[in-house]
Structure formats: C-alpha cells, structure tokens
Amino acid sequence: MNTPVIPARRRVGLTVSGAWLAAVLAIVAPLSLPFGRPGRPFLTIDGDLYALSVGGPHAWLLLVMLVATGAALGASLLRMPTAERGDIVTLFGAVALLSAILWLVLTSTPFGMGAVATLAALVMVLGNGLSESGRVQGDAFIASSILFVSVFVLLFIIFPLFTVLKSAVFIDGRFDLSVLGATLKHPLFFVLDSTFTERSELNLTLRWAAGGAVAGALLGLVRRVPPSTLAGRVLLMGAIGFVVGVMLYGNGALPTSLAVVCIAAPSCTLLGLVFALLGQRSRLAGVRRSLDVLSILPIITPPFILAFSMIFLLGRRGLITYNVFDLSTNWIYGIPGVAIAQILAFTPVAYLLLRGSLGALNPALEEASQTLGARPWVGLRTITWPLVRPGLAAAFLLSMIESLADFGNPIILGGNRRYLATEVYLSLTGRFTPREAAVYGLVLLGLVLLAFFLQRMWVGGGSFITVTGKPTSGALSPLPRWLEVTLTALLVVWTLFVAALYVSIVVGSFAQLWGVNFTFTTRHYQDFMTAGWPVFLYTARIAALSAVPAMLLGFLVAYLVSRQRFFGRRFVEFGSLLSFATPGTVMGVAYIFAFNTGPWLLTASATIIILALVFRNMPVAIRAAVAGLAQIDPSLEEASTMLRARSFVTMRRVLFPLLVNTLVTGLIFAFVSAMTAVSQVIFLVSPGNQLATVLLLGWVEQGQLGRAAAMGSILIVSMLFVIVVVLAIARRIGSRTVRVTA
Amino acid sequence: MGPAFEAATGHELEFIRLSSQDALARIRAEAASPVFDVWFGGTGDPHLVAAREGLTEFYEPSNWGEIIQDLKDQVGGTYIPLYAGAIGFVVNEDALAGKPNPAGWRDLTDPMYKGLIAMPDPNSSGTAYTIIATLVQIFGEDEAFEILAGIHQNIAQYTTSGAAPGQLAGRGEVAIAVQFMHDGVKFAEQGFPLTVYAPAEGTGYEIGGLSLIANGPNREGAIAFIEWALTPEAQMLAASQGESFQIQSNMNTPVSPLSPRLENIDLIDYDFDRFGTPSVRDELVGRWTNEIFPQPR
User: Fold this and answer.
1) What angle do helix axes A82-107 and A113-133 make, rounded to 10 degrees?
2) Which residues touch A125 (CB under 8 Å, ≥6 apart)?
3) B64 to chain A, closest Cα gap in Å
C-alpha cells in the first residue's frame, strides 16, 4: 500500500489563515449596517449612525477599528510561519475589538445591527489568531467559543451584578456606605432585641450560644480531640448556637429567611433521599413508576397556584382544617406555610439529583457486604450512606439556594414576616428605593456564595454538577422491610397531599368563587381565553426561543469546561455558577439597572426577557450536558481528532448524535423552566411583552382566583403534554443510535 | 378599552397592568429612556411623587372644565384626577360570628376583634399609607399612633397589596378589612358575602391619577389618549369593564348605583400636598415600622 508522502516544506507557513473570512465580515458589516441606533427599536436604520458617518470626538475610534481590521485581513493573507502570524492577527483583532467597544461605551450609543455583526466577526478573528499563535491549546472553533462564552458571561452575568453592587455603594458618584448601613440596621432586615418585649432576646440568644459552646466542648472532650481542634469546635458550636438563637428570637428578613432555609433544605434533602431510595430499590414496580411522575409535577407547576391551594385546604376556612377538623387559625401564614410549600416544590429537585447520585453507586460493594453477612440496614448505614454523602451535600446546597431565592411562595403565604427575596421586590415596588433593593440583593447573593464555598470546602469538587457514572453490573440490595414499609407510607401521604392540592386547583378553576361558592361555571376559562390565551401563546414562543440558545450555550460551556483546559476556564465556570446561584429577583433588578441606558440598551423588548431566561436556564442545560458527556469516553473524540477532524466537526458528528437524548431533555427542562419563571422576569415585562406568570400574579393580587386557577390548570396540562410527547420522540430517536459505553 | 380607543382616535393601544408602586418604580428606573407614554390609574400619591421628581408632565386637557372642581383643587397642577375613592371597612358578618360591626376607627381597637382584622402593610402598599395619613389627620399624630397600636393587637395579617384584605374577608379568613371601599364593593359584586361602609369619625380618600410621562416615546398618542380617557364614555367604559366602582372625575360620567357616593360619606379635608411629600411619608411609615410593627401580638 502506498502511503502518500507529504513533502515537509509544503506544509509550513504556506497556508492562509482562517481569519480572513471573519476579517472580511468585520469590514463589510460596519460599512453596510448602522453601528448604533437612535432608540429602543433594534431594526432601525439611521443614516447618522453608520461607522463612517458618525461625528463627535470619539469617531476616530471607529476609524482605528476599520484600519486594524484591514491590517488583520492583510496579515491573515500573508504566507508566513503560523505562530507569528497568529500573534499579529491577534494583536490587530484585539485593537479593533477594543476600539469598537470603547466607542460604544464612551458615546453611550445603543448598539445596532452593525455593532452586533462587527463585534461577533471580530471575536472570530481574535479566536483564529489566538489559536494559530498557539497560546490557546485548541483550534479556531475552540478559541472562538471560549471568547464568545467569556464575553457572554461577562456581559450578561458579571456586568449586571456589578451594576447592582455599584448602585448599592456608589451614591452620586461617591463611595458611600450609608444606604448599605441603614438597610442592614433597619428592623425590616434584622432586629434581635425588641424593645417591646419584656424578655431580652439578646440574652436568650447568648444563652443558646453558650449552650452550643458547652455542647461542643463536651463532645470534643469525650472524643479526646487535640486542644486546637477542641477550641475550633467550641467556637463553631457556639456560633451555631448563636445562629439558632437569632432564628428563634430575631425578626426581619434575614432571620426569617434563614429559619425557612433551615427547615426546608434538610427536609427536602431527606425526603429526596427517601424517594430516591424507594425509586431505586422498592419491591413494588408501581412505586417506582409513580415516583417518576411525582418528581415532574412540581417542576411544571406555575409558582403561586400551589400556595393558593394550600390556603384553600389549610387556611382559616380551609377544607381540611375548618370543614374537617373545625380549626380556625392562621397558622399557615408565615414560616410554617412557606416552609411546607417549599418542601413540596423543591423535594423533586433534590430527588432527581439524588437519584442520579444513587444510580452511580456500584452495587458490587453492597453485594460484598451482604456476602460477608451484614444485614441490609448495616449495609445501608456503612456503605451506601458514606458514598452518597457528596450527592447529599449537592442536594442540600441546591435546596438551600432554591429556598433562599424563592419568591412566589413567600408572596402568598408569607404572613407578616419579611423574606430576603421578596424584600428585593418590595423595596423596589413598595418603597421606591432601588438602592435598598440592591443591598438586599447583595446580601442574598452573599449568603448563596457562602453556602457554595462551605460546601466546596466540605465535599470539594464540582458542586452543582450531577454525578452520574457508567452503568454498573450487579443487583441492588433491597431495603430492610421495616424501612421500606415506613418510607412507602410516607410516599403515600405525600402523594395524597399533592393530589389534593392539584385537584383543588382544578376545582377552583371551575368554581364560581373559589372557597365560597362552588357552583359549576366555565366563566373563568372563557375569561382566560379572551385575556390570557394570547399572553400564554406569547410566553410559549418566548420560552421556546430561549430554550434553544440556553441548551446550545449550555452544551458548549459543558464541552469547553469538561473537555478542554484553557486560560479562563475557572472564570467561565464561576460565571455559570453565578448565573445559577443568583436569585431571580436579584438578576431581574440587575438587568434593569444594567440594560436600561447606555450602549447596552435592551429593556422593554422581548430580547431582554429571552436573555434573562437563557442565562437563568443555562445551568440546567450545562448540568445535563456534563452528565451526558461524562458517560462518553473521550477516546471517541480523540480518534476523531487524530483523523484530522476539526473540533466543530467532532462535536457535530461524534458528540451530538450520542447526546441527543440528553440534549432534548435539557431542552425540555429549559423550556418548562422558562414557562414557569417569574422572579427573573417580573421587572422586565413591558406593553406587548407580557408573560403568563406575571399576568397570573396580577390576577391573584386582584382576587381573580378562578381565572388564575384556569390559567394554572392550562399551564400544567400543556407542559405535561410537551414533556410526555417530546420525551417519547427522544426515546424513539435515542434507541436507534448505538450507545457506546466503555 | 383598547379597541374603543383605536376606534375613536386611530391610535393603537398597548398596555400593561402594574400596581401603582410597581409603576412608579418602573418609571423611575427607566427615567433616562422612558418606555411608557401614559400612566393611567393607580392611587394619587405615586403620581404626586412622580410629578415632583419631574418624571411626568402636567397636561391640561381640553375637557378640563368637566372635571369635578373639588378634585382639581386638591391635586393642584400635578396630575389629572381620574377617579376618587374613599377608605372604609369591608366586613364579613358571618366571620364576625355575632359580634357587632365596628362603627368607627376607635372600635377597631376593641379586644373582641382580636385576630379578625386585616390591613395592608405600609411598607409595600400605598393604601396603607393613606390609612395612616387619614388617622393622623383625624386624631392628630400621637393619638393616631395609639389607635394604630390598638389595631395592631387585633390584626391577623398585614397584606402586601392594598386590595388583599378584602379578599381575605371575603373568604372568611378575617372578618374586617380596612381598605378602599370601591374594592370592597367589587368583591361583594363578585359574590363574596361582604358589607361595605365608612367609619363614623370620618375617612380619607384617594384621587386616582392620569399622568403624561415626560419625554415619552409617543407624546402625540399619549395626549390623544388622555383627551379620550377623560370623556364620559371612556370613563364609563373603564368603570364597567374594569369592574371599578370609584367615582370617575368627569362630572358628566354617570355613577354606578353600587359605587359609594362621596357626598354620603364624611370625608376629611385630606391634605394631599403635605402628605404627598416623600419626607413626611418616610417619617410616618418609618415611625409605624419602628414603633408599631415590632410589637408582639
């Protein structure tokens, strides 16, 4: 066989850089499309805002941009050694990009079509240059992707959050901590020692702290730990005791939110573990199947409806509390109600995470313990529990974040306590103080980041990424019988309660007046069709429009982060983590602050809503894609690369077909999450751009509960339909490809 | 209302419904580049604040002469009066279970109503602030705060929105709601078993506003809308379609028989100027938050 001989001389430096095409685009775009726009509408063409026709003191920047791009084009066509040429193209590309951005920022002109096209093309030029110069260990596609992702993370996650931070501490251009201080000292935020009670809450809290310290000391002495650890333990337990005291006796947004988190997060995690164990090892197939359904239900439920069903069933005139048990109390308003609603809403999320975590365990270990004569309970306690701890930590963290960021339940069930997430909204809309909203947002963000870092310290490694492994061999040991019976009973109670809530929603949509007059009527559905149906369709369109970029971006980020090593990888990871961790109301406020004026003008458009949803749901897609990628052996991609395929080709022809199932699942969850989003978008709706969940909140506030129940029912049914249909199609497609596992 | 407006003037109408606090917050946030052209409805205080901050422009429509004189006098040249509504009690007599209806403000402090009253929260609702300002004007600040402290002991819940207390009363979760009477009438019309009336010592009221946003994108369309919205036909349409029972500002607009008539209620001489000032508002709400709210009940 004749292997073709490739003369060495012909391969070096005589090829043209791939950057020339992008550079041509970067010259054509500003010359043919307007670089800026006069106002909000994006598709306007204003003759004064072309790159060559702008006036003003900064116009030279655009000329620099054009000249630099031309230089990059010229350099890319030269036949010289790749590495040096790469450096030159990078330099000129960077100069062009920076001058374009500088012009936009200095003149505060809203970016136009030409700017978008030019900047995108310049990023590709830069990417090409960087990859050729060898500074980024990847080809042009990888380098450009890294740059694009970094730009998106910077512009749509870091920049808005930074604007919030700035508005909290910079007042009238000066660094001023007065608003920060005033908000933190305000009784709405935190008050411990109330002047109206006879007891001294501070003393009580200090007693708790002392008790904690003593308990820590005793535990340490019993276990005979060295003195340094003992001191650390005493301090830690003392601090925990103090925090417990604050939650018990304090009032205001901070203690209340902390108390709710401390009740909801452990409960969610524990219940999630219970259901995951049952789902994996129950002897009854019916139990296993029903758990799949149960887990989806709260994810597709619009935010406020469940809270209202709870009032309907358990409130002062509740069906269960009043009509059955003859109790007439307001116990449900406040921490108990919010905690229960959050447990109902977030247990499925914990369940999904823990199911994946349990599924990654190797049953062979449990089999070994059984063979050595251990009873099932011992096996669970000594083998399964330690192995599932990282998953538990991740589920706990997730529940904590969701609980802190929860907006819908406290708004309805909050009672007279304040909550951090709702105070962001209420300080902006009830007290007209955007700076206060910014402070609350910062506190919320700080708490979430603190939780992340604590968890990282305790467990280490990828925190919000699901751990799924390769399918393993071996049979799973069933649960001890007494445990299984108890847990199944718990599941039955849970199912009945959830079913009652959903039934009451449907009943409420057909009742004349929910809770008072139960004559059957279709009036609410008719009202919904006139007032709500167009909004519903619009929301579905927006959600679909946002799901696709969310999934693509998520897949790209997952690929870059898990398969590539590059400078700035930590930054991209951190950015996506931030987007995941930031509570919705904070992000919404940040988007208003950041995108209402200046070069990045975006408010009052469908675009800003889509962007907010994309960056909100990107982490969902990232998680799904990382899990999927973990199941594919890198050797497949290596083989493709060795056969001289560029990374884009590898992605398209090797990874995509194998990951169709995962991607479609990610797509659906992004869509559903976008349909039920409320806290991110409540500030971003505008005339002509109304969303279903915001309309729902409006109806609930006006007392149009029947109509709200009708919209809620339709939302639930339609999303169930979408999920079932799309998953069925995906399973059909997935079963035809050959799954390769190593 | 959109189709009627389009038919009358040829301009297209796109709207979004926000609470008046939301609306002010949005208008403030977007001041550098306004999104909206007109601010229709909502209680008057935010309109007043917006006018003072220069976010809105006072526009005198051609049918200015038809607007009720009292309303015009009260608001001066800040915003256009759209409707007027008074604060009152909205009572669910079944939930009271035999106890007498409270006749006036002082009766609300009676311990027999413990856990039966709902009122909006001054930190998130303009209605609540109107209530506080009303009490201050009737009784003087110190006695008003004593009464508020007494009411606080009987409060079951402070709600975030101004109309929510009436819903709670309607469903029997509480017995007495303190809020605008026209909202109470609306809930009663929907079928809730509610009685709506004004307190004996007198009560305050709001003058809902209509403002032209300064530097809005479509000033011409906005003016056309303002002119049209103040005609009797438009106001009647707003009242019937929106299920609103306030008194509309155009004196020629027919009043629904269900609306509480302002002449029949003992209205105080509400000083919109003084109590619309942000510093006065901050002081009163702050005093309530620091002195009344933290008290255990």
Assistant:
1) 150
2) A19, A22, A23, A26, A69, A72, A76, A89, A92, A93, A96
3) 28
Report, in angstroms and rounded to the nearest whole number, the Rg of chain B calculated over CA atoms: 19
pLDDT at position A539 is: 93
Residue B244 near chain A (CB below 8 Å) = no
**DSSP state at residue B264:** G
Please state the φ and ψ torsions of residue A363, each to the nearest 5 degrees: -65, -15
Phi, psi of A470 (to 5 degrees): -80, 150
Q: Are A709 and A514 in contact (CB under 8 A)?
A: yes
Q: CA A392 to CA A399: how far, in whole Å? A: 10
Residues in a beta bridge with B117: B155, B176
Say if residues A350 and A265 touch (Cβ distance below 8 Å). no
**Using CA atoms, how far apart are residues A17 and A79, in angstroms rounded to an integer?**
8
Task: Please choose, from the candidates B124, B284, B286, the residue with its C-alpha nearest in 3D space to the C-alpha of residue B204.
Answer: B284
Q: ∠ at Cα A23 (A17, A24), nearest 5°?
A: 110
Chain A residue numbers with beta carbons less than 8 Å from the beta carbon of B24 are 432
Yes or no, beta carbons of B190 and A597 under 8 Å apart: no
* Residue A542 binned pLDDT confidence (cut-offs 50, 70, 90): very high
Phi/psi for A582 (5° steps) reads: -65, 125
Chain centre to alpha carbon of residue A3:
52
Q: Chain A residue with minimal CA distance to B170?
A: A516
A531 contacts in chain B (CB < 8 Å): none
Q: Is B218 on the interface with A (CB under 8 A)?
A: no
Contacts of B33 in chain A (CB under 8 A): 39-40, 596-597, 601, 603
Backbone conformation region of residue A213, classed left if phi is above 0, alpha if psi is from -120 to 50, else beta: alpha
Amino acid at A708: A
Q: Which amino acid is at B55?
A: L
- Partnered with residue B250 across adjacent β-strands are B67
Tens of pLDDT, residue by residue over B208-228, are 888 888 888 888 888 888 888
First to last CA, chain A: 33
Paired strand residues for A36? A111
Pairwise CA distance, residues B159 & A634, whole Å: 57
Chain B residues within 8 A of A703 when measuring between CB atoms? 163-164, 166-167, 170, 187, 190
Does the beta carbon of B164 lie under 8 angstroms from any beta carbon of chain A? yes
- Token couple for A671: 């869509």
ipTM of the modeled complex: 0.77
Contact A187 B30 (CB under 8 A): no
What gap in Å lies between CA A45 and CA B155, rounded to an integer?
59
The whole-angstrom separation of Cα A436 and Cα A420 is: 11
Instruction: Give whole-number Cα distances, A559 to A446, A464, A569, in Å.
Output: 29, 16, 11
Q: Kindly calculate the radius of gyration of chain A based on its CA atoms and give it in whole angstroms.
A: 29
Residues of B in contact with A182 (CB under 8 A): none
| Burial class, A636, CB count within 10 angstroms (exposed 0-12 / middle 13-18 / buried 19+) | middle
Rounded Cα gap, residues A538 and A506, in angstroms:
23
Q: Is B6 helix (H, G, I), strand (E, B) or coil?
A: helix
Q: Tell me if B289 and A188 make a contact (CB, 8 A cut-off).
A: yes
pTM: 0.80
Cross-strand partners of B56 = B213
Helix (H) or strand (E) run with residue B81 in it? strand B80-91
Among the listed residues A149, A261, A163, A301, the one whose alpha carbon sits nearest the alpha carbon of residue A600: A163
Lookup: tokens for B258: 């269900």
CA dihedral A370, A375, A376, A380 (to 10 degrees): -90
Query: Quick one: tokens of A366?
Result: 């449990």
pLDDT tens per residue across span A406-465: 888 898 888 878 899 888 888 877 676 778 888 888 888 888 888 878 777 776 554 333
Residue A14 pLDDT exceeds 60: no
